[in-house]
Predict the structure.
Amino acid sequence: MDKPLADLIRISNAVGKDKALVQGGGGNASVKTADGKYMYIKASGTVLKDMNARQGWRRLRLEPVLAIIKDVSVAKLDPDKREPEVVNRLFLACEDNVTSGARPSVESHLHGCLERCVIHLHSTVVGAYVNAKNGRAELEKLFAKENRPP
């Protein structure tokens, strides 16, 4: 098994078991290969804690994944046509031995342009802040000293 795939499975299983970090399927995780040619990412509909060597992930060629973002014709599509187009392109970027038809995360192109390892979770605490009346102000206080994007 490739090290990046082993890392993805280990990370996904670890965070996926923590119910404070994950609700339901709980988000996405991805790991890129050291040469930058491939990205392993959680398959859509997979519960993080259930990923293993046989299921729950896809390996994508990174170049066609990033091409989705660069292709302005995709952005111009009506939303009802855009998602099927993106999903089709993600399937075409898959290069693995997965035969289940598992769909790569629809967020694969976002993960593709981020860091080598991305862990995106739906934690209960963040969900509570996001839905609270003064949640944004409270989060800004909590993270006032952190470096954040503008």
Q: What stands out?
A: Residues 79-93 form the longest helix (15 residues). The chain has a mean pLDDT of 92.
